[in-house]
Design goal:
Layout (H helix, E strand, L loop, with lengths): L1 H13 L4 E9 L10 E6 L5 E5 L5 E8 L1 E8 L6 E8 L4 E3 L2 E2 L9 E4 L5 E2 L10 H6 L20
Parallel strand pairs: 1-7, 1-8, 6-9
Antiparallel strand pairs: 1-4, 2-3, 2-5, 5-6, 7-10
Length: about 160
Amino acid sequence: MILQSLLFCARLLFSQDPTGVLEGQIVDPSGALTPNAAITVKNSSTGFAVTQQSSPTGSYRFSYLPVGTYSLQVSARGFSRFDAHSIRIDVNRVINLPVNLELAGSVATAEISATAASVDVSSTLGNVVSAHDAVDLPLNGRNLTQLGLLQPALRP
């Protein structure tokens, strides 16, 4: 009984939340930081959305975002709305997405795809196990938890 309890606790210690982080700084055309901008992150497949304001230093951070593809919308008074789409959040990844706001014109909207602009600044290595891997890889007894042993930097 004690051994089972210890194994259960050890399993909890090594488990990870299926979440990631999206962060960055908001600047105007001159490069000055833009505080108090309204920022919304929305998961395009589930509809999950979170809204916050940028800090006094013009930075933002969305922690514990569930894994998925997101869109980012930033608006500030006097500036055109900034839209970024196809931002991929993976397990234990920190995506740094800087936002460059443009001065508001007559009717202008800037749409930018963030796929190429995202930078992983996390200190951990990991990978998402696809359904193909879960079905096609030979596993002893079909125990899917063994797939964690295939990930880099997770071996003892």
